[in-house]
């Protein structure tokens, strides 16, 4: 397919020359206009992959078009051409997003090489953006997190979702195992079919078989009607069995038979029914240890443990705590009609210092408690409930760190104004030292993303500063 090129040149003779140059290559489909207005119309209707732009136009300055493309983030690479070439114009054009700058007159070879380079640059930029979208995400199908452990989880879900293979999710309570199962379903070809979740630890043992496979009328005391089980309800979709290691051994045998045959038989019934179900199961225990201790069937373990996904505890996701706090504060403040919008430095330090044994669920509950019970625009240390405040009262290094941060270096000193990067680096390193090397905590106190600090430090190291 030919690359779409828009040529904006007010001189008909020069426009014909440039179109002739491009005609030597079969790669380009060229459209030409003579005014800035016509160019803006074309850009609005269908942005080309490449724009060759004369800066001197009869109705406007070509630089305004360039600024429009940058402001709208159009997927268009720009080559600027002008007879009024100067270093200042070139710098200005590049600053406003131009890929390259050609001074008239130029020959066909120079134009073709520049066009090829511009389009290669556009393709590479799109690939980089796609990579970032796929592997540097802060929000993903109900998850909030930019940390490396969570990026790894997202990649596994991306890879596993399209398969029918069984996924076994492990992780402590509150880490988001059902969110993970739902994400797998939503990313799969089964997304428009049912997602049925069943908590094996919350249902009495005597009723569990009926919950999974259903029952016929009169099958047991209280079975006044025929009832469809979760397996049949999930036909064509996904069946999520949470806390699978809580399941009774006898029922594990029947579940194994169901997985092997794809058929279900209702309690008290004689007929079997074929169903198409994708299994996702989860536990907060070590499933292999459960097998070794005889509480979980080994053959069922091997049937289910095809694609393992381990959800990291929140204490291993320190870069995500601030993201989660801010998100929950916005959500709950809106729901409750409150004005709370941010955390004081002391409150932030207390929350960042806590290790969250209850993980994301506990953090959610703490933030909701704060929002429901308090007024004002800022979350202060006095608003934070137990057990987080108990930890602070016993004395953590967090409060001194926050206080010491106020002593960060100023912009100017005895030598006059200093370079901004130097002041920035000194402030960041001071914050990290005050937080005893805890970069996520330092980032929270500086009100920046932890990834920003990591990137800046990497850049300084590369530059040897």
UniProtKB/TrEMBL annotation:
The lineage of its organism: Bacteria, Pseudomonadati, Pseudomonadota, Gammaproteobacteria, Oceanospirillales. InterPro entries: AAA+_ATPase, AAA_lid_NorR, CheY-like_superfamily, Homeodomain-like_sf, HTH_Fis, P-loop_NTPase, Sig_transdc_resp-reg_receiver, Sigma_54_int. Coiled coil: none annotated. Residues 143-372 form the Sigma-54 factor interaction domain. Residues 4-119 form the Response regulatory domain. The modification 4-aspartylphosphate is found at residue 54. This is DNA-binding NtrC family response regulator. SMART domains: AAA, REC. Keywords: ATP-binding, DNA-binding, Nucleotide-binding, Phosphoprotein, Transcription, Transcription regulation, Two-component regulatory system. Gene3D superfamilies: 1.10.8.60, 3.40.50.2300, Homeodomain-like, P-loop containing nucleotide triphosphate hydrolases. It holds the Pfam family HTH_8. One of its GO terms (biological process) is phosphorelay signal transduction system. One of its GO terms (molecular function) is sequence-specific DNA binding.
């Amino acid at each position: 397919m030919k690359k779409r090129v828009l040529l904006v040149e007010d001189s008909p003779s020069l426009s014909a020359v440039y179109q002739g140059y491009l005609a030597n290559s079969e790669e380009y489909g060229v459209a030409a206009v003579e005014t800035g207005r016509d160019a803006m119309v074309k850009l609005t209707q269908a942005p080309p992959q490449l724009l060759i732009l004369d800066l001197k136009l009869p109705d406007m300055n070509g630089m305004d078009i360039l600024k429009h493309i940058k402001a709208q983030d159009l997927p268009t690479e720009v080559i600027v051409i002008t007879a009024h070439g100067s270093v200042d114009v070139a710098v200005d054009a590049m600053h406003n997003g131009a890929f390259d700058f050609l001074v008239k007159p130029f020959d066909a070879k120079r134009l073709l090489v520049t066009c090829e380079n511009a389009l290669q640059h556009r393709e590479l930029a799109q690939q980089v953006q796609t990579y970032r979208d796929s592997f540097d995400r802060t929000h993903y199908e109900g998850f909030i997190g930019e940390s490396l452990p969570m990026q790894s989880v997202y990649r596994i879900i991306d890879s596993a979702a399209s398969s029918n293979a069984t996924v076994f999710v492990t992780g402590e309570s509150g880490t988001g195992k059902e969110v993970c199962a739902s994400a797998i379903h939503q990313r799969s070809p089964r997304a428009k079919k049912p997602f049925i979740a069943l908590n094996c630890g919350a249902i009495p043992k005597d009723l569990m078989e009926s919950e999974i496979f259903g029952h016929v009328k009169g099958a047991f005391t209280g079975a006044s009607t025929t009832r469809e089980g979760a397996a049949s309800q999930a036909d064509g979709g996904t069946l999520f069995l949470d806390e699978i290691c809580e399941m009774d051994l006898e029922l594990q045998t029947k579940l194994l038979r169901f997985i092997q045959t794809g058929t279900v038989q209702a309690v008290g019934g004689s007929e079997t029914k074929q169903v198409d179900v994708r299994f996702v199961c989860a536990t907060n225990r070590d499933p292999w240890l459960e097998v070794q201790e005889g509480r979980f069937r080994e053959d069922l373990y091997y049937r289910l443990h095809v694609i393992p996904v381990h959800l990291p505890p929140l204490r291993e996701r320190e870069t995500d705590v601030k993201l989660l706090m801010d998100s929950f504060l916005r959500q709950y403040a809106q729901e409750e009609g409150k004005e709370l919008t941010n955390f004081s430095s002391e409150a932030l330090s207390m929350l960042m210092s806590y290790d969250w044994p209850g993980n994301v669920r506990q953090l959610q509950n703490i933030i909701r408690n704060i929002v429901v019970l308090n007024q004002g625009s800022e979350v202060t240390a006095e608003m934070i409930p137990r057990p987080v405040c108990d930890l602070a009262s016993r004395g953590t290094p967090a409060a001194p760190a926050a206080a010491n941060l106020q002593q960060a270096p100023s912009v100017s000193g005895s030598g006059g104004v200093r370079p901004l990067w130097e002041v920035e680096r000194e402030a960041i390193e001071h914050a990290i030292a005050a937080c005893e090397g805890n970069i996520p905590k330092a980032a929270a106190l500086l009100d920046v993303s932890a990834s920003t600090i990591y990137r800046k430090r990497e850049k300084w190291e590369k530059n040897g500063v």
